[in-house]
Amino acid sequence: MKKMLVMMLFLVIVSASCSLQNQKVSKNTKIAKNISTQADYEIPKDFDDLVANSKDIVKVKFIKNKDIGDNGSTTSEVEILKAYKGDLKKADTIDISEPWHLTNNKYTAVENYIAMEEDKTYTLFLSDAVDKVRPLVSMGYGKFSETLKEKQGFIQEYNLLGEIQKYDFLGGIDGELKTYQQIKKQVFEKYK
Questions:
Q1: What UniProt keywords are attached to this protein's entry (predicted)?
Q2: pLDDT at 5 over 70
Q3: CB neighbours of 177 closer than 8 A, spacing ≥ 6?
Q4: Could you tell me which CATH number the domain at 35-190 has?
Q5: What are phi and psi of 129, to 5 degrees?
Q6: What's the Cα-to-Cα distance from 158 to each of 68, 115, 126, 170, 171, rounded to whole Å?
Q7: Residues 6+ positions from 19 with CB-CB distance below 8 Å
Q8: CB 3.0-4.6 Å disulfide test: which of 34, 56, 96, 148 passes with 168?
Q9: What would the pLDDT profile of 144-182 be if each residue is shown by its tens digit?
């Protein structure tokens, strides 16, 4: 009886961990409405501040989410297309930490972070790796897309992930959007 109970417990743990690894997001993934995840992070004063605080600056192609975590972040795999600063090389694949996760199968962003999309390119500003995973140097200000737009607002104003994926950044507090737009303009003037 004891062996059977241990075996059943083992199967529950294995199936639960497999289901977390197999979670996926799509344009139809609902956005969590009653959950607000906040974080302390440094907002760069300007472009020079962002560059100075970054260990690596790279242009990447998003490949896939490797691990949609339940601890506030998701590990994603990207391919380096260009390296502007740091020791990463073109064609390297690296893991990065994105500040979002799923809660009851609903998209939950830390602050207003919008997840990267498959096959899209981004310029990333990264910090030192922790356990071989590189975090963005400044949550919303560490990822820029040349083709996506930015807007004033909050993620909770939307119902589905597909509704926000046309945006690179949602500025929730006065001044955030303007700062982001000024930095973004300089990012794509310098890093082509």
A1: Lipoprotein, Signal
A2: no
A3: 150, 151, 152, 169, 171
A4: 2.40.50.120
A5: -65, 140
A6: 21, 14, 28, 11, 14
A7: none
A8: 148
A9: 999 999 999 999 999 999 999 999 999 987 788 999 999
